[in-house]
């Protein structure tokens, strides 16, 4: 290499003693190259340069120069940076995994604590065939006469080998065709049901396996809530851990409910067809398999047509699965099963009582009790008469009143239920409106309001003003729409004046009213109801209302209503005997109760319940809820307390039916029947009306002397005027003395 190959040396033209010159604004100033060729002189008349701009300098090659030496320290630094970045990524992933595990664990702990902690435990394998097996019950009336035999009919325990193959196959075709192909929970079935329901916009298909249905039937309630569903899945999983598929199917066939009080396929075969399960035909097996889905609604004694329609679908499923041939299906479709006489037995007007008494007997004797004999408090004559009166009255008044249902409940003086009529026809509707229905009592609730006010010191002769009132945004009005002005508290109850009832509720206070009704046995109200309670806005049932009125009948003593007199095994071993209380359970002062009963007697004799009067001392109160949806009358004599409700199940308003109308008429007819053999008597415990207590005023002597002086002076003045009468002037009257 020689000096001519080196780049030329460039001199700096700037004097080092001068300060550096600032570049002009805009583009940076290009340094002057003395070796560069001078550009040609610019033509002042040329408008633009014709030559293109010079090409850009070549881009230097990327990467290190071949002559650059290797730097190991730089390579190590790069490796450390890469490792640090990888560590951050792995740490983040580990943290996310930990958070996910904690979230899943926390969620599982929450689900277990909230939903699964109290899941029932499974008994032993053999005990599964008897767990929660309700007893059979023979019911007797108060006189010892048999009313009916009730309770589950289980039949004989069957095995899969003791019945034709098409019997279990019919149930699999109806409930779980993939039973032998999935576990306790059918994930595929859940997905299929979700898709079908989503497309249909509503629930059209379920996904419960046969094992889940068995778990629900044995251990759980039928409530459709998340907790019950999760517990059902857990129990199904546990069942499949301890039983084989065949054992689960056998247990299902022996314990599933078929309606009409019948459990198990053999019990259903005996009840509906009068034969054992081993003799069932294909058509009968398919018909029985249609029932577990809705055993009450599809019961063969209630809706045979719908059950037959479902059985045809089951037969089609059996043929599709290859479990029966097309010829067998055709034969089964032509062979319509006939019911036996046992299935057609009718409990008549005692159905509502037996439903209620069965539940009460199981509470006392337990789920796994032996077969029982239960003697009831029911008077068969009053039960039949009450049901007939309700039925006749509603048939006569249905068109005029717009009411379709009624209920009646009657208690004797000791709290025994003598009649319970839950509707117009048990066969059409077993719903017990005397116990299960909660409706607004209207003004029939006012005696409790007045009782609380009397307890606070209000007396029947106290004056209250019937006038427009307003409490916040609420302005209660009277039924008639007008106002009567000042009246006594007693008159306000007799005429059922709403404004004064609300005023008395305000005086007594919500807490005092809530406490009083709980003492009287009404438990459906909150501890401190608002003022609308004075007009019966809170829903109650007829049994509690009637029992609450019995406190008035008994002079302030609370008696718990009861329907079971005794329980024994069918072998004669006693289990339960009702015992009257050893001492009175007083919940209300007898003096205040006397005041209340006297006012309520005038409601019947002079007030809104005149139609209920039947020639005996009686007290009570009418009630009508808002928009005439409910009409009530609850009244009592010294011997019976009876309540009547009239309305519609769908809460449709009636044609202005009030408590003093149809309910009072039903009450009167029933009470006349109940008192036929009883002597006329008044309430023996009533106290005389309280008399005003007065104490002598020490000033009485002074006022008596002053009064005597006035009388003497007036007498002397009168004598003087009689002796010397003033001359009367024409056209001017004689002045009259002020005395």
UniProtKB/TrEMBL annotation:
- Stretches with biased composition (Pro residues): 51-67
Q: Where is the Penicillin-binding protein transpeptidase domain?
A: 413-642
> What UniProt keywords apply to this chain's record, in alphabetical order?
Carboxypeptidase, Cell shape, Cell wall biogenesis/degradation, Glycosyltransferase, Hydrolase, Membrane, Multifunctional enzyme, Peptidoglycan synthesis, Protease, Transferase, Transmembrane, Transmembrane helix
Q: Which GO terms describe its cellular component?
A: outer membrane-bounded periplasmic space
Which GO terms fall under biological process for this protein? cell wall organization; peptidoglycan biosynthetic process; proteolysis; regulation of cell shape
Query: Compositional bias (Basic and acidic residues) at which positions?
Result: 10-24
Domain Glycosyl transferase family: residue ranges: 144-318
Q: Which residues cross the membrane?
A: 86-112
| Species this protein is from | Caulobacter vibrioides OR37
Q: Where is this region: Disordered?
A: 1-72, 713-739
The protein in question is named: Penicillin-binding protein, 1A family
Pathway it acts in?
A: Cell wall biogenesis; peptidoglycan biosynthesis
Penicillin-binding protein N-terminal domain span: 1-142
């Amino acid at each position: 290499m020689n000096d001519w190959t080196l780049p030329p040396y460039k001199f700096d033209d700037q004097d080092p003693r001068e300060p550096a010159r600032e570049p002009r604004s805009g583009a940076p100033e290009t340094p002057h190259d003395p070796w560069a060729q001078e550009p040609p002189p610019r033509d002042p008349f040329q408008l633009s340069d014709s030559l293109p701009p010079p090409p850009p300098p070549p881009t230097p090659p990327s990467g290190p120069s071949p002559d650059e030496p290797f730097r190991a320290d730089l390579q190590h630094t790069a490796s450390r940076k890469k490792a640090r970045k990888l560590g951050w990524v792995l740490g983040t992933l580990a943290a996310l995994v930990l958070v996910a595990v904690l979230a899943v664990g926390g969620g599982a702990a929450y689900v277990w604590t909230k939903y699964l902690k109290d899941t029932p435990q499974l008994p032993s394998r053999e005990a599964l065939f008897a767990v929660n097996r309700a007893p059979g019950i023979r019911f007797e009336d108060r006189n010892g006469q048999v009313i009916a035999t009730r309770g589950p009919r289980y039949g004989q325990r069957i095995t899969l080998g003791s019945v034709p193959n098409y019997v279990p196959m019919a149930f699999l075709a109806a409930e779980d065709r993939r039973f032998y192909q999935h576990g306790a929970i059918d994930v595929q079935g859940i997905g299929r049901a979700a898709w079908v329901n989503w497309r249909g916009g509503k629930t059209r298909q379920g996904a419960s396996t046969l094992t889940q249905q068995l778990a629900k039937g044995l251990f759980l309630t039928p409530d459709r809530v998340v907790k019950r569903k999760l517990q059902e899945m857990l129990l199904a999983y546990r069942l499949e851990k301890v039983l084989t598929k065949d054992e689960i199917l056998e247990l299902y066939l022996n314990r599933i409910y078929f309606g009409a009080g019948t459990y198990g396929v053999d019990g259903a075969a005996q009840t509906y067809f009068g034969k054992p399960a081993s003799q069932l035909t294909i058509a009968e097996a398919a018909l029985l398999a249609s029932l577990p889905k809705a055993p009450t609604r599809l019961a063969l004694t209630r809706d045979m047509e719908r059950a037959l329609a479902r059985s045809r679908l089951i037969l089609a499923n059996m043929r599709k699965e290859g479990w029966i041939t097309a010829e067998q299906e055709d034969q089964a479709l032509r062979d319509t099963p006939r019911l036996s006489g046992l299935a057609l037995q009718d409990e008549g007007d005692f159905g509502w009582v037996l439903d209620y008494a069965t539940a009460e007997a199981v509470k006392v004797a337990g789920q796994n009790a032996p077969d029982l004999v239960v003697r009831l408090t029911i008077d068969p004559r009053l039960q039949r008469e009450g049901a007939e009166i309700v039925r006749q009255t509603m048939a006569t008044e249905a068109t005029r009143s717009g009411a379709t249902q009624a209920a009646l409940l009657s208690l004797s003086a000791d709290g025994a239920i003598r009649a319970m009529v839950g509707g117009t026809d048990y066969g059409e509707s077993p719903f017990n409106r005397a116990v299960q229905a909660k409706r607004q009592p209207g003004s029939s609730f006012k005696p409790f309001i007045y009782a609380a006010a009397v307890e606070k010191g209000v007396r029947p002769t106290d004056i209250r003003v019937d006038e427009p009132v307003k409490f916040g945004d609420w302005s209660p009005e009277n039924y008639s729409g007008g106002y009567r002005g000042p009246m006594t508290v007693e008159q306000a109850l007799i005429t059922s004046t709403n404004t004064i009832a609300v005023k008395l509720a305000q005086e007594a206070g919500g807490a005092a009213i809530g406490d009083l009704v709980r003492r009287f046995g009404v438990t459906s109200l909150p501890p401190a109801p608002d003022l609308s309670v004075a007009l019966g806005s809170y829903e109650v049932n007829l049994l509690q209302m009637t029992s609450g009125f019995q406190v008035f009948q008994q002079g302030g003593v609370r008696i718990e209503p009861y329907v079971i007199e005794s329980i024994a095994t069918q072998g004669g071993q006693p289990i339960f005997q009702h015992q009257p209380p050893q001492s009175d359970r007083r919940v209300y002062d007898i003096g205040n109760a006397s005041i209340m009963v006297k006012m309520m007697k005038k409601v019947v004799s002079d007030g809104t319940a005149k139609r209920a009067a039947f020639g005996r001392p009686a007290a009570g109160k009418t009630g009508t809820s808002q928009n005439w949806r409910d009409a009530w009358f609850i009244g009592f004599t010294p011997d019976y307390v009876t309540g009547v409700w009239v309305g519609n199940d769908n809460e449709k308003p009636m044609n202005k039916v009030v408590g003093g109308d149809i309910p009072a008429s039903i009450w009167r007819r029933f009470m006349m029947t109940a008192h036929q053999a009883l002597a006329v008597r008044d309430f023996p415990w009533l106290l005389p009306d309280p008399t005003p207590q007065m104490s002598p005023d020490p000033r009485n002597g002074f006022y008596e002397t002053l009064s005597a002086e006035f009388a003497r002076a007036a007498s002397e003045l009168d004598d003087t005027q009689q002796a010397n009468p003033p001359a009367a002037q024409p056209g001017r009257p004689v002045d009259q003395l002020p005395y």
